[in-house]
Amino acid sequence: TGGVEGSVGSGLPEPDETEEPDRRGMPTCLLCTCLGGSVYCDDLKLDHVPPLPKETTHFYARYNRITKINKSDFAFMNKLKRIDLTANEITSIDEKAFIGLPELEELVIRENHISQLPALPETMALIDASHNNIGTKGIHKEAFKDMTSLLYLYLTDNNLDYIPVPLPDSLRSLHLQRNNIQMMHEDTFCNLKDFNYIRNALEDIRLDGNPINLSRTPQAYICLPRIPIGDLI
């Protein structure tokens, strides 16, 4: 590693996970490109998340070889708004890796090997976990219910056999193409107790490539501005 002091094998004790890591004098901005609050570490053959400057707002580490996200990787990153880990080799994410980030709005973890979506803060506006291995037990119950700013939820090409309800009224776009969803309840999107309820924001629902017949639940779409895209036969 070019003789960087304090590197792996130094014999130093592991820091207490409750203590804020020392991010001074880091070589990350020599390896990656740091522009203002954005850190770009794309296509650098990284196998872990490098230590980030405390002022980082946007972190990009696409097309690397990262296999795991630890809860210490983003600890105390209080200004971080966007994390993009597209096309790595991630198989697991610690449950608390993102939950303590007060400003996080966008998480892109598409094209990995993730089977479990971790807990996420209520500040989320965009979640893209498409092209993973997320299945029946891969999403927490009511995971998105309190995300009142969530606009885009992309879970295309996973192994889901259900629509992860309840979904916040803020949601504009829901992509669930090419999963294993076979049925939908008539109150999945609408409120059957209130026929005046209109879900104006949700204009983009993709269910094509699932073994579901949308024509079996015609009452499920009465509150929507557009019928979902999928099989009506």
TrEMBL record:
Q: Where is the LRRNT domain?
A: 28-58
The annotated region (Disordered) lies at 1-23
Q: Where in the cell is it found?
A: Secreted, Extracellular space, Extracellular matrix
Q: Which Pfam families match?
A: LRR_1, LRR_8
Any single GO CC term annotated in Swiss-Prot or TrEMBL for this entry: extracellular space
Biological process terms from the Gene Ontology for this record are:
articular cartilage development; bone development
- What are the alphabetically sorted keywords of the record? Disulfide bond, Extracellular matrix, Glycoprotein, Leucine-rich repeat, Repeat, Secreted, Signal
Tell me the InterPro entries matching this sequence. Answer: Leu-rich_rpt, Leu-rich_rpt_typical-subtyp, LRR_dom_sf, LRRNT, Mimecan/Epiphycan/Opticin
Where does this protein chiefly localize? Answer: secreted
- To which protein family does this belong? Belongs to the small leucine-rich proteoglycan (SLRP) family. SLRP class III subfamily.
Q: What is this protein called?
A: Epiphycan
Name its species: Sphaeramia orbicularis
